[in-house]
Design brief:
mainly alpha; globular; DNA polymerase, domain 1; hpI Integrase, Chain A
Length: 300
């Protein structure tokens, strides 16, 4: 079997058996297609450890980040382990494949005061009743108030919201469902949008959508629209040129821990499979505490 055919069979396994997200499956496909190009279109049985090492070396020469190299090595290990289990190959060439460890970089986080100013300004802008202003205020309040992923936000349907309890039912990675809470400001922003903004957007649509968050033409909003909104409003206050919706998720998690929330509770809210993923926010909080100490203490 050639690599492209094996790649598609593996992608099918990821989608139907492991139930990974479309974005994750797309990343696996991209890595394996790059491997096929580097290997010169050889059959899967002809890919050995040297081919894999040469593939990663070429990526290094291109200047790919260590995180990219680590991801590609992980893709190769997962793919060839699966291929070996399926008897497509007699030996797994990735068993001794080593890639540089990902450098852990602390996430970009906005301060409490900056978030308060940002959200209040969008609340004020929504007073006039413009449907997009109402929607954008609801998006920002919900992302910050719940810490959900942008994909989870875009996937929300009306039936997923419980405005009385202040909770949302979201479908996370691996098709895992969870219920997340959000605060009064997010509930107020959502209520105003659902009452005054969303009906205007629904009227513009050719077909009805059950989505909570709609685009300007009445269809379910896409991740790119949310990305552009967050990038536009958040970049100036955190001093970063490239920033996306995950920055609000990082900020929400850090502020929860700063406020005394239990680490495992934050893990459950964020939908992290591993507590280790959540623990990075304890480093963010510790860095902020250290920075405050050095600025304020006379013996620092």
């Amino acid at each position: 079997m050639d690599l492209p055919a094996a790649t598609e069979a593996f992608a099918d396994h990821l989608e139907k058996v492991r139930r990974l997200s479309p974005a994750t499956v797309k990343a696996y496909r991209s890595d394996l297609r790059d491997l096929d190009a580097a290997a010169g279109g050889v059959p899967i049985e002809a890919v050995d450890l040297e081919v894999l090492r040469d593939w990663l070396w070429r990526a290094t020469q291109r200047g790919d980040a260590r995180s990219t190299l680590a991801r590609r090595a992980a893709t190769a290990r997962s793919f060839f382990n699966w291929a070996h289990e399926q008897s497509l190959i007699t030996h797994d060439p990735s068993l001794r494949l080593v890639a540089p460890k990902k450098g852990r970089t602390l996430p970009t986080v906005a301060s409490r005061d900056a978030m308060s100013t940002l959200l209040n300004s969008h609340r004020d802008a929504a007073v006039e009743g413009d449907p997009i202003a109402l929607r954008d205020h609801a998006i920002l309040e919900l992302l910050y108030g719940s810490g959900i992923r942008v994909s989870e936000l875009c996937g929300l349907d009306i039936d997923d919201l419980d405005l009385e309890r202040g909770t949302a039912r979201v479908l996370g990675k691996g098709a895992k469902e969870r219920v997340v809470p959000y605060g009064l400001p997010a509930r107020d922003a959502l209520s105003a949008y659902l009452r005054r903004g969303r009906p205007v957007l629904v009227a513009r649509a050719r077909t009805f959508s059950p989505a909570v968050i709609l685009g300007s033409r009445g269809a379910r909003v896409g991740p790119r629209t949310v990305y552009e909104l967050v990038a536009r409003v958040l970049a100036p206050i955190v001093g970063a040129e490239t920033i996306g919706p995950h920055a609000l998720r990082h900020t929400a998690a850090t502020h929860l821990l700063d406020g005394g929330a239990d680490l495992r509770a934050v893990q459950e809210i964020l939908g992290h499979a591993s507590l280790g993923t959540t623990q990075i926010y304890t480093h963010v909080s510790a860095e902020r505490l250290t920075a405050t100490y050095r600025l304020a203490h006379p013996r620092a």
